[in-house]
Amino acid sequence: MGLTFRDGYYTRKVFIGKRTVKQGEKAIYWTLSGKAKRVLGPKRIRLFMSTIQFCTRHIAREGEYLVIEHVGGRTEHIQGPAMEFKDPILHAQIRVEQAVRVEAGEAVIVYSRIQEGENTNDQEAADAANAAALAIAQELVLASTHTATTPTTATAAAAAAVSPGDNKSSDVLQGVVMTSSSAGKVTRMARSIEVGPCLFVPGVHQHLLEFSWHGEAQGSHPSESRVLPGQHKFKKLKLLQQQLYYNVRDVKTSDNCALTVKLLLSYQLVDVPKMLGATLDPIGDFVNAMCADIIAYASSRTYPEILENTAMLSTLRTFPQLQARAAAVGFEVSKVVFRGYKGSADTASAHELATRRRIELKLKREAALSEQDDRDRILDRNIARAEREEQMAAAAQAAQLKRDAAAHTQALQQSTATNHQQLAFITALGDMGVDVTKYLVAQAQGQVSTSIIQVDNNASKEGATTGVHVHAK
Length: 473
Fold this sequence. Notes:
Tetrahydropterin Synthase, Chain A, 5 domains, six-stranded antiparallel sheet, four-stranded antiparallel sheet, 8 helices, 24 strands, about 35% strand
């Protein structure tokens, strides 16, 4: 018996014997007559001319579910936690599948069978059903070819807005899945939108829509990566803001230069039903619209003009076709960021040469301006120095004139005093009876040399004469 739980691989033919079915095991044995008997452990059975087979145990835990395919063609889904033994008589297959975990900001598109028609021989009803299916299919084809910028009338009437805060929303499916008209069976499907956060377990007659959009195909170098169709396959829609890196290659300017423009697109899905009814690949629409806008922008500008006005490539008004297409398919474009550019080898070489020349001219101009500024500064300093020297000379001259004036005044005062003394002396000589004229003539001829003459004015009192003292050498 052992401790190992046996599964469907354990099959034995027993002539005479016994088997123990442990608790947690299930077995089926067939008697000689072909009758099957099921045994659920714990139990010990005796066998004679029998074949015994143990059943495989399948366990679905939290977040899982069991898919049971019955022999009769019926399928059953059991949400976990659950356990089921595979009965080879009843079950064709049992497998464990993961439930779809829809996080906040995500949504899944669920298609469910809502009705099944009865068999009918009414050819008119079959023709009417086929006509309705054909009309709706034509609407889907027109939407998938991207020739219309808005959904058709029937699609718009059936569409309902879905916001990230909703838990569930549904709308009518635009297509009809049919068998041949002679059989008269019509199966209609309804479409519902499940918005997270939730754990979705699909029913037997439900399936999730799988999207196939443009996606990034990695190259040997990041600059060689491309956005190609069918690269992004998924079942959960992102309702939050997303980003797309895209390089618009081989863009021709008005002067016939080729360059690659690198862009970053930020977008958000705001209307799920509108997107489902308007396009099969919105990323492909965005890529084509961005290419058209960039080509239109570059075709009217030269290569240097584009490089001088790269800020225009980060504004939404440069991308009118992108904004129009995003609004038509239920998306909102928040921003487009210019990440840089890359030119061809010839264009890059010519641009590098022109840039080098511009830099050299700029350096020469700056050197000449610097030299002129140095000369201007030297001249300004010389002028300032000359002005200061002139001020200093004027101040020195003024001081000298002041000193000369003071000396002249002093000399004048001394000359005046001397003249007063001589006048008093001559007057005194005249009073003493000296012939003043002869004296002056003799003095002029150098015959009289009198060095000191003292006049005593204090001696003039009442009844006294003026005292004059002459000291001759």
